[in-house]
Design brief:
The chain is an alpha/beta fold and 554 residues long. It is built from 24 helices and 14 strands. Helix 5 runs parallel beside helix 7 (145-159).
């Protein structure tokens, strides 16, 4: 498995484990379907993971076999040697069906190991199972004897002393660990090797290799791809190559102004709708009021930009009644910080094991993006529970465990900032809200009185070109509702705009008419309950206006 050429870190770890006899079986997971740089002699080329195993890691092996559901067992290298196997001479056929194929491979490995034990011949044999999760899937709660028998046989490739003492290397290739049979994933004799999304340096090398083929698409960058690679961090080489092919065919240059949108499209496409990027041109200046909160957030951004991470929080919890603008605050924060915001979408799936696999894919993306905010709206529903009962076969508990582990990773501080939003923070597990995962809890409240409500409505009307004079406040004061949320004020501003444009009302008259028949969209008891929760969650008393501090004693 040795090579004199520079190799990715994951393959160096693999070589060390194999050559030290620590293990001979590897689960390769993560970015397994991407293009990789293959160091071949004096040159480097782009190829897939299968080629990397064949032509780089196992270049010196005598026999290399592969298996997948579509093609069955294939002899990738050493056909003449393999053909001397007595069992193959008898049948001249290799099976496709999973159970028979795994048994055949096991039989051949034992045959080679016995030859070595008898000092007849010593062959280096390698085998990789492509899409191993389709051959031996993780069917939680299912009793499938064939499936379990195959998993046990493959597990023995690493645990049986006859096989593990022989020069055998086996690879199980899967995108997500959670999709693979737990007997294999939890085997202490099997090494799990994560193949990450390409780093900016990996992308830069890929651009250098692709440049001669896409002279028009990459014409603006000449031979300097470092900036381009950093701007497209988080995408796969395959996605970038597809983009360059399209641009080259259209005879269009890849220009820096398009990169933000292109990266958004590439990443969202790679993740199959599991995430979306929130684009924002707003800043904290667009947030009405909340001066204490804005000052705190701006201090955090300064620390982040200076790479001073000692006091940088790993996460925020935004809590408050519905309609108070939690999502809007996230957009303003993202625009102020100038970093991408990744919003988790429909990662839950009805198929067994798919939800966990989706989360694995999302976490890989987050690690590759570098600095980013991760926004989880309605966190009380999305994050799962420690004890999920039996209603969902333990899915909620597994989701909770995976997210809690990722949020608590110390390596993420300064790279990934988690933002949870909820009007019911009491339903979020305490462990997910603790310091070390969520360090700052920010309550967001409705208005505290008629003056504040009036100013909020004025500001929202002004954004629509409707100006309401300050002098109109005394007349409107009795009509302005208490505890007005930005969401409710937005609805009022839209209604005012509509009356001014369609019925030629003067702005103040239109607002008066809207307020005269206003009905609070949130029942008072619900509003007060959610305000109390937000007050109790606040991590700093300065975040709570004096008007709401009485809720602490209720």
């Amino acid at each position: 498995m040795m090579t004199d050429h520079p190799l990715p870190d994951w393959s160096k770890e693999l070589i060390t484990l194999y050559e030290s006899n620590a293990t001979n079986q590897f689960i390769l997971y993560g970015n397994v379907y991407d293009r990789l740089v293959l160091p071949l002699g004096p040159k480097t080329v782009l190829g897939d993971l299968n080629e990397f195993l064949l032509r780089v890691l196992m270049a010196g092996f005598d026999v290399i076999l592969s298996y997948d559901l579509g093609h069955g067992i294939r002899v990738e290298k050493g056909g003449e040697i393999f053909s001397q196997w007595p069992s193959f001479k008898e049948n001249q056929q290799l099976p496709k069906a999973p159970r028979m194929a795994i048994e055949t491979l096991t039989h051949y490995f034992r045959y080679c190991a016995n030859l070595a034990r008898l000092n007849i011949s010593r062959l280096q044999v390698g085998c990789f199972i492509k899409a191993a999760h389709l051959v031996m899937p993780a069917l939680y709660g299912a009793l499938n004897y064939d499936l379990n028998a195959m998993a046990l046989l493959v597990r023995d490739w690493a645990g049986d002393s006859l096989l593990s003492g022989h020069t055998l290397a086996t690879f199980l290739i899967t995108e997500n660990l959670n999709d693979l049979h737990p007997l294999l994933v939890n085997n202490p004799r099997t090494a799990q090797i994560k193949i990450p999304l390409p780093s900016p340096q990996d992308l830069q090398k890929a651009f250098e290799l692709m440049a001669p083929h896409y002279t028009t698409a990459l014409g603006e960058y000449g031979d300097h791809f470092e900036t381009l690679a950093h701007q497209l961090a988080g995408t796969t080489v395959s996605a970038v190559e597809s983009l360059l092919k399209t641009k080259e065919y259209q005879k269009q240059k890849l220009i820096s102004e398009d990169l933000v949108e292109l990266k958004k499209q590439l990443v969202e496409k790679d993740c199959n709708g599991l995430i979306e990027f929130i684009e924002s041109k707003r800043t904290l200046d667009d947030l009405y009021g909340q001066e204490k909160i804005k000052a705190w957030l701006r201090q955090d951004i300064v620390l982040w930009n200076q790479n001073d991470l000692q006091a940088m929080p790993k996460g925020y919890l935004l809590c408050g009644p519905v309609g108070t603008g939690k999502t809007f605050l996230v957009e303003c924060l993202a625009g102020e910080a100038g970093v991408p915001v990744v919003k988790l979408k429909n990662f839950r799936d009805k198929w067994v094991g798919s939800t966990e696999g989706n989360l694995e894919k999302i976490f890989r993306l987050l690690q590759a993006l570098g600095r980013c905010f991760v926004f989880i709206d309605e966190a009380d529903q999305a994050l799962g529970k420690r004890d999920s009962g039996t209603g969902d076969s333990g899915l909620s508990g597994r989701v909770y465990s995976m997210i809690a582990e990722e949020m608590g990773q110390t390596r993420n501080r300064g790279k990934i900032v988690w933002i949870l939003a909820s009007s019911r923070p009491d339903l979020i597990e305490v462990d997910l809200k603790r310091p070390g995962r969520i360090d700052v809890k920010i309550p967001i409240f409705p208005t505290t009185g008629p003056r504040e409500g009036f100013q909020l409505i004025r500001a929202l009307c002004r954004k629509r070109g409707i100006e309401i004079e300050e002098a109109q406040f005394p007349e409107l004061e009795p009509l302005i509702p208490s505890l007005l949320t930005p969401g409710a004020a937005e609805a009022l501003a839209v209604k005012v705009y509509r009356l001014v444009r369609t019925e030629s009302h003067r702005p103040a008259e239109a607002l008066k008419e809207c307020l005269s028949d206003y009905q609070n969209p949130v029942p008072p008891e619900v509003m007060n309950f959610q305000i109390k929760l937000a007050v109790q969650e606040a991590s700093d008393l300065d975040f709570i206006p004096s008007y709401f501090r009485s809720y602490l004693q209720r």
